[in-house]
Amino acid sequence: MDLDPAAALKALQSRNFGGHSARLGIRYHDRGPDWVELALPFSPDLIGDEDSGVLASGPIIALMDVATSIAVWQRIAAFAPHATLDLRIDYLRPARPGQTVIGRAECLRVARSIAFTRGIAHDGDLADPVAHVAATFMVPSGTYPKVAP
Amino acid sequence: MRLPPYAELLGASLEVGDDGAPLIVMPFGEDVVGRPGFLQGGAISGLLEVAAIAALRHALAEEGGARVKPINVTVDFMRGGRDHVTRAAGTITRLGTRVANVEAVAWQDDRARPIAAARMNYLIERD
User: Fold this and answer.
1) Where is the Thioesterase domain (chain A) (predicted)?
2) Which residue from A20, A47, A48 is facing B32, i.e. has the nearest CB?
3) Most buried one in B21, B27, B88, B98, CB count within 10 A?
4) For residue B81, what is the domain's CATH number?
5) Which of A138, A121, A143 is nearest to A62 (CA)?
6) Which residues of B touch A50 (CB under 8 A)?
7) B117 lies in which domain range?
């Protein structure tokens, strides 16, 4: 069984007329066997510092929150409603003004009720990252479905 | 003090708290929703960031202002953000010469029951 990250994002965004991630313009970008990439197109209303034109950190956190969340579903090959327990982000350098930010996420482990993830935000070159993220998720009740070996 | 364009996207506005410190207020709305009926984590994080930077600018204004750059942010999500107004305020734990440590909390009905809290480190560049 497989989970299509593009379909998962579309389902997320359509459930409530779009929501925050759709307002930010977050869309599916790419995937690999154990990672998923979403894209955050640059827009002037995402600016956090008008002097430099640099993006606010909120949109990048939102991008990485959704990307790491989908990485968990990709790992368990199923959709399971869960909540972000915590998210830590290191800003390695400012994103270049005008550039689309790509969020790559992978799931490290899915335990009974907690899932561990990490991610990198970059603006074109994965080797020159903008931010590094670690996020954990929790199912509000019950457990995650078992991951097939 | 003027809030950045991203604060406008969130629908957030600036108020002054009883102690004269900035307070950021964000109504519930379609643009900040995650799963139906709840705030999106990124919107809560964004609000916490706006509150932290407002607190920092408020503190730095007293000494003539400076540029601030985020180093890192750790957000703990404690409760689901429901269909209510959310308020957030930042507290400066330490204002050093090069680094500021800031905490921010977001709450809805009761400040003693936060929906999320964040710790941030900012690099300060004084002229």
Assistant:
1) 53-125
2) A20
3) B88
4) 3.10.129.10
5) A121
6) 4-5
7) 5-125
Residues 6+ apart with CB under 8 A from B83: B28, B37
Q: Where are the domains of chain A?
A: 5-138
**Which residues in B lie closer than 8 A to residue A84 (C-beta atoms)?**
41, 75, 77
ipTM: 0.90
Query: CB distance from B121 to chain A under 8 Å?
Result: no
pLDDT of residue A148: 61
- Split into its structural domains, chain B has a count of 1
Cross-chain residue pair A23–B30, CB shorter than 8 Å: yes
Q: What would the two tokens of residue B122 be?
A: 């900012």
pLDDT in tens, B76-122: 999 999 999 999 999 999 999 999 999 999 999 999 999 999 999 99
Fold adopted by A5-138:
Thiol Ester Dehydrase; Chain A (3.10.129)
Walking along chain A (149 residues) 10 residues at a time, the average pLDDT comes out as 78 67 92 96 88 85 95 93 95 92 97 97 96 96 80
